[in-house]
Amino acid sequence: MYIIATASADTYITNKIIDGSRVENANVGRAGTLDLFKLYDETLSGSTGGHTELSKILLKFDIERIRQLTTGSLDFGAQSFRAMLRLQSVDTNLPVPRNFTVCVFPLARSFSEGDGRDVSAFSDVDACNYISASAGNAWSISGAYSTGAVGDTGVDYFSSGNLQDGFGTRSLEATQNFFDGTEDLFVDVTKVVSATLANRLQSNGFVIAFTSSQESDQVTRFVKRFASRHVTNESLRPRLEVYSNSSIFDAHSNSFFDVSGSLYLKNSAGSSQRNLVSSSVELSGSNCLLIFLSTGSYSTVVTASQRTVRGTGIAGEYFGSFYISAQNPGIVSTFASSSISLANIIASSGSVVFSEKWKSLDQSIVFHSTFLTCSSPTRVSFDAVQRRLNVKATNVSSVYSINSSHRIRVFAYDSNYEPSAVRVPRPTISSFPETYYRVRDINGSIYIPFERSSESTRLSTDSNGMFFDMYTDGLPRGRMMTIDYLIVDQGTEYIVEDKNVKFRVE
Fold it and tell me: Of the CATH numbers 2.60.40, 1.10.443, 3.30.2310, 3.40.470, which one belongs to the domain with range 389-505?
């Protein structure tokens, strides 16, 4: 799962000196850029130089849509869960500061964006400014300088805290070094977002500033500009990128000996998923079902459990993992006083069709009956000819609504593959276990990348092939977009463009 939350409020606060006087009550909430700067050795009326002007950036994101997903497929406690804050640099063709460090902290109090636009004379007075966070709500220390731990009162931002996640009290700071000064800001705010989703932190947003040592040194840093949420180009606006690996790999369409696999079962009644019932008792939790895999006189039993997210069972969804060795000595049949083992059948045919039955623990009820074809892993002499892969989404629309989700079905095939002739045509179901998607502008800009480290854009598989859920949240409206695929197969990586897909978000 990969979902983007765009900023719901942003601004920057400053104690700018205009015509020799401090202007601390100005608001720039509607400005097109978020400016981070420090000017040293400025002059105030009636005094000599040595005065400093500073700015800080304030950001807030509406994460309610993300919070809603935590009741289903999004597990913010999973090891793969990540939340990344991205601000995109604005190129003004003017000099930018170099070799500086930016720090990011969670705000302890909410702020109002305001309607100010004047970034020259700073004459627009409004609620969020260097003195106050909102109307009637002054910063504890002007410039939002009061810091403390989570739970402390009278502070402007939290620098540390115990988030009740088993790691004790720790720093909540995220930092990034800017060497050239032209880089985007891209920092990991996972621990803050996780704590917010768990209701251990209020969703007040972030404060972004130079480090305290760089704010107090005798160096001018003017000016680092990022695009605000009011910039015309939506793709440049601040983003909170949240992702986690929610993919599943159902072995029904791609099962091998000597490789662990998982089988999934979904039970639905009408329009909703419901737990299976045995003797008037709903089946839930761990080890609540049995899966029997058999061929001839050979049989193996797999214990199945209910699928869970953050320890909570998903109604009507079950899975069980299995492993069958290609050298399995189990007897399948006896013929002419000799026994034929499963290993012998695998060696001669390369695949075996098993009867698959999902049963209650007392074996009195068969909930589902089907077949599972398990094949030997591909073992061939060295072949230098690469595949010619084609990947197609089979159900993509030309227009999607913003802030919506859509399950995309994907079919892949190798143009170099020549199937053997068969008497009766059979449908081809193609699944590559390691396949990732990305969403990009047809002109090249990438909005959702191949996120391999967390596997959040990895495609899932079920009995009908491959699929993924695309979330349109945060995608720019009106832009023509397409989907690419990264397939890792037999040690080779392929990037394939889906040439039939063109869509936009409205």
Answer: 2.60.40
